[in-house]
Structures are given as C-alpha cells and as structure tokens.
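REQUEST ID: PR-0412
SUBMITTED BY: lab tech R.K.
PRIORITY: routine
TASK: structure prediction, single protein chain
INPUT:
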Amino acid sequence: MANKIRVGVFFGGQAREREISYLGGKTAFEHIDKALFEPVPIFVDSLGHFIQINPELLYEESIRDFFPSKNLNRGFRVYIESLGELNETQLYKLIYKVGKQIQPTDFPQIMDFAFTIMHGPQAEDGSMQGLLEWYGIPYMGPGLMGSAVGINKPMQNKLISLVTGQKKKSVTFTREEWAVADRSKLFTDLINNIGFPFVVKAPHQGSSIGVAIVRKRSLEEFTRAINQCFFEVTFKKSEWEKMTDRQKRHMMEKTTNLDEGIGFPVMVNGKILAHPADLMEELDAVLFTSETVTVVSAHAEDYVMIEEFVVGQEFSCGVIQQDDGKAIALPPTEIYGEIQTFDFKSKYKSNVTKKRIPVDTSLENLHKIHESLLKTFNTLGFCVVTRIDGFLTPDSRVLLHDPNTIPGMSPSSLIFKQMAEIGLTVTQSITYFIRQSIRERIRSGKNTVNFRQLLERLDEMIAERVNTPRKKVAVVFGESDEQYKIAQKKMGEFSSSPIYEPVPVCAARNGQMYKIPVNLMFKADIQDFGQSIGKPKHPFIIEILEKAKSITKKYAGGFDTQMKKLSEAELAENMQFIFQCDSETLVEL
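STATUS: complete
OUTPUT:
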C-alpha cells in the first residue's frame, strides 16, 4: 500500500463549543483508518495558537485538565485566556508541556489533509477554511460560502424559507435596541406577533448554546432569556451577600463553564477581567455599595433572534454526497422524550431524550422531510456532510432550522448513527468525509492537479483496503448493557486497525450466537438494541440503502443488513480471533 496520507486533526478552538470539538478530535484520532492515514493531532487553544500536542492528552476529561498548567489557575478550572497577558517565555513554557507550537506556514510540511472538527465562530464560519485554502491544504466539510451561511441563523432562516417555502415567524433585535426598549411592551409585542411560548437564540452559536425557551408570561423570565443569549448576567447585592465563600466560588466556576456560563474574559463596570478570582473580588467590592451589577462576556453576541415555538416531532438528519456531488439524505433521527427541545444538556448531559430512526410518521411525510433537506443542502452551498435539524408539525409541515456544516463527532453522535444505517462504521465514515472533501476541493478550481493526484492515491488505497482480507475478530457480547458498551468500544478500536476486521456477535440468553449488522451496534443501550433486532427493515431505510449502495460498496465493500445465526463450527471456520466482552480477552482460534 502507498505511503499513508497525513491528516492533521484540528480540534479545540476559540468558540464556546471547544469541548465538543475536543471530543470529536479524540474520536477522529482513535477511529481514523490507520491503514490509510497517519493522524497528527493539532490542538487549537482559545487564543488561536496551533499546537501539535502529545496524543495521550486526548484522553483527559476536558481541555482545562491539561491546558493551561493547573498550578497557574489560582484554584479554579480555567482556560488559557483567564491567565491574562502572557509574555513569549511564559507562553512557550505552557505550550512545551503539552507539545510544540506550529505556524500555518508549517502546515504543508506536516499534513496532506486537514480534518477540522472545530465548531462555531472562528472555526466553522469560513475562518479556518480560508486559512487552509491560503496554504493549499484540502480540508473537511463545505467551502467558504457554505461555512459562512452555516454559522448565521437569521440568514439560514431567510434562505431556507426561499428554497423550501416554509413559513416560520422570527425577528431579531440588537443589544442597543434592547438597552433602550420598553421591555414590557417588547414582550407583549413579541407574544402578539411571534406567538407564545417562543424561543430565544444566540445567532452564531451551535450545540444549542445560548438557547432559551420563554414558557411563562413573566417579564423577569423573558429578560433572563434575552440576557442569556447576549451572554451577560446580573448579580444582585441581596443574593450575593447571602452566599458563603464556597458558594461564590461555585458561581464563578459556573461562569467559566462555556455550556452554562458566559465565559471569560468579562467586562464589569468598564473593566476587563480575565480570571474568576478577579471577578469574585470585583463583585465583593462593587456589590458592597451597589444593588446590582451586570457582567458581560467579552465575546457577547451583538443581537438575538426570536423564533416561534414549534410544536411537532423534532428530528435531525445528515445529508451526504455521491462522488458526482449528488446529495443523499440519510435516515432522519427523531428526538423525543420528556423535554420539549433538544438543548445542550439534552444533547450531551442527559438521559431524558430518546432517539429513533427514522421519524415515526408516514412514508409520505418522510419523503417530505427528505425533499426539504435536499433542496436546502443543494441551494445553500453545502457539501460533503451537513446535519440539518427540523420539526414535523401535526399538520405534516416540515420546518427546518440550524444546518450544522461540521456535525458533532463523538462515537455516539447522530451523524455516525445515521451513517451506520447505510452500513458504514465510524472509521469508514471518517474515510468517506476525507475522500469526499478532497473531491469537493477539486471543484473549487484551486490546486486542482495536486488535489486530483491526492484523490487518485487515496482511491487506490481505499480499493486495496476494502479488497484485502484482514484477520476477522468476533466481538462476542452478552445481553447486558456493560458488555454491549464494551463491544461498541472494541468495534471502534478494531475497525481502525490495519490488521483486524471486527464482526459483532451477540451471545443470546437462549444459547444461540448471532452475527449482528453494523447499524445495530449504534444503539443507545442494550434495551434499545434488543428492541431493534426483531424489527423488519423500514421501507424508507430500504430506499435510502438503494440510493447509497455505491457509497457503501466503495467504503465497506457492501452491507449485510440481516442478523444471522452462527453455529460454533461456523464461528471457528470464519473467524481468526474472538474477543470476549465478558472477560475482555482476545483469543486466537
């Protein structure tokens, strides 16, 4: 096989979604096909430095657990921007502990391709894409136009409305307008014009950061929701004075957390403060004489967007492409459960939401969903992969919102669950993302000869990879959640290996062994798995499989969609190794 293609895995960044990006970076590094690619982990810190980091640091719980150094944090878990102005020597020492700093001019010597798993402003909005184009590096996902559209929610709404004809009420107003508004009248006007309840959104954030639903006819709740989306918080003297020192420190920690707080640096009374300890000290001083004080993020939004609250079935669906650029929508995932919106906590920190594929509705409605998705994908400048969210209303209208041009990429992310429905593992999906991205960069007319040569080289390697037999490993798990989770993890490890080809096998309680299709290894738990194995393939998914069969064949060699009973003799004849999930041991047959 030809020399491996060097892939710079970019993660982190300056946006509030940097921790989600950190999880995606770990996924790509672990699951990328080691027979085809050599991953080079590039951590982008929140000041914009590019750091080729030591790979073991991908296994920390959070960015703040390894960068910056804990002995500089003054007792708080902070990001590097909280350390204030650093001189060159201080910065060098911090970076040296985790890796080495590189410059964009170094990119061509380090990588052949950039797998950018960075979300939000300065990452997903065209900034990184433009930088990589300047240095001639092909990168993952859409180009400059699709990226710019994908980060701007009001612009998305207007364009989607033009493309699909959907009608969804929304309005925006600026921070300046909010500052001078008669808030009671504004609240009443919004209720009359938008409806009630309504949704407040920060227009440039992803992962549902800065999303609030105003459910009560309360001016206080309305004001709090708007302030949340402007990333500002008001502290009251009456509440602050009742807090213990420990409670105050906890409040400062919450302010540092980017999923629930406004983050640092902040501005208070005209001062820019970078560290939670400094903010705590400032609040002690100011609230000694003042009744309230407002703290504003240095990276606050300039305007907010108000949307009508849509009642209906919430879904999320990835759209990918054939080699010729023709879009294919994947099976849409319905998000349901006890809560009424798929916000940050329900996406990443809650077991309340449940998911099913496809949306539980008629075949006609599923086709409607796909029709709207494809119109949006094809018209808004997207390519390679985009995840688009939406609602199916009780009267069968499809309302789309929030296209995500670089979807979250932890192993349990929706995009990988949907790719599994057409027969691709996480590893094969990553290979698809890389290969199709190179194909789309060729369409831009820049570095065409070099990119074509890279594409030809990769195509040869993929064909050899798919057609070269590997040592088959039966990943055998019992009907317990613990063993199922182990099997999911080992499937990922073996899939990315140059040596092994994993085959999931369930050792059922009835004493029988069953070979499991790959899509059933992406369920939430063993209960979800058990409920899925007896169901016939949905006719809508059968349609999608037919449309996507050339993709499945190219990257996986095909897809066996049926669960099959295996005898011990068949297991021994067809497998070279068995990994037993109950004992976590690999045995050669």
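NOTES: The chain has 22 helices and 25 strands.
REVIEWED BY: pending
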